[in-house]
Design goal:
Elements lengths: L1 H15 L37 H10 L4 H21 L17 H10 L7 H10 L13 H13 L2 H12 L6 E2 L1 H9 L11 H16 L7 E2 H10 L14 H8 L8
Antiparallel strand pairs: 1-2
Helix pairs in contact: 1-9, 5-7, 7-10, 8-9
């Protein structure tokens, strides 16, 4: 039993710690990649105001763990991202201006997760991070306004263990039914493990790992993992927090980002 638990911890550690390296570039965006865009009608970017409104600042000071300087810096970053996304947008009809963008879209979001926070993770996990990010009541499904963007960053950068547990569980609960099932574990783990040449059934190793992880996470032994199961298991073995794929910046990356010149403490 001890050997199996050791295997679980090693597997969880390998999954959680993949791609760990420090690469901070808060100003980088999708617009800066690849070849220059084709000529198109020039459009004045639609970007948020230059400063946070006092009312919005007061709300976020209470709703996040950021201080005033950090929120102002994050807002400047947000404005740059929106502006860059606008410049990179393609016209929907030839000869027509590109659509106006006034929030963070999925492509920009993915770019930030990859390049600023170095989340080198499976596509399904990255898609789930996007889809489960709390957008609030006034922000649509397809974009992120500044307030929900800042609140979400507060969780992944400065959140408590409970906040991060809730966030990760929502990411892994693929159908949002309140449980992580064996089928969901299989989907999440399938692309995270290296397949060995000559394997007759490459999925067999994934199924074996699912069984091992399930034994560790399924505290009440009902064949699936509830939030309570997940909470208790992570308390006992912190590496299991990201057992099914990286969805949080490492502590080192989070601290380094917050201490850069654009987000330094006062």
């Amino acid at each position: 039993m001890a050997e199996r638990q050791k295997q679980i911890s090693m597997a969880a550690s390998a999954i959680a710690m993949r791609g760990v390296r420090l690469f901070l570039n808060a100003g980088r965006s999708a617009a800066e990649k690849g070849s220059p865009p084709k000529p198109r009608p020039r459009v004045k970017p639609v970007i948020p105001g230059t400063k946070l409104l006092k009312e919005q600042m007061n709300i976020l000071l209470k709703a996040t763990r950021f201080n005033k300087n950090e929120l102002e810096a994050l807002f400047s970053m947000y404005r740059r991202l929106v502006s860059a996304a606008q410049l990179a947008a393609s016209p929907t009809v030839v000869g027509q201006p590109a659509p106006k963008i006034d929030s963070i879209d999925q492509n920009t979001f993915r770019d930030v997760m990859h390049n600023t926070f170095d989340l080198v993770t499976e596509e399904i996990v990255l898609d789930r991070i996007w889809s489960t990010w709390d957008r609030g009541t006034n922000s649509g499904e397809g974009s992120l306004k500044f307030e929900p963007w800042a609140k979400g960053l507060s969780v992944i950068l400065k959140g408590t263990l409970e906040e991060k547990r809730t966030f990760c569980f929502r990411v892994y609960d693929l159908n949002s039914d309140g449980f992580i099932t064996k089928d969901e574990m299989f989907i999440l783990l399938k692309n995270s493990l290296l397949k060995q040449p000559g394997d007759e059934d490459p999925d067999e190793g994934v199924r074996d790992l699912v069984e091992l992880v399930l034994r560790k996470l399924d505290v009440d032994k009902d064949g699936k993992v509830s939030m309570d199961d997940y909470r208790e298991a992570v308390n006992q073995e912190p590496l299991l927090l990201e057992a099914f794929g990286q969805c949080l910046p490492t502590r080192r990356q989070a601290l380094a980002f917050l201490k850069t010149s654009s987000l330094k403490y006062i």
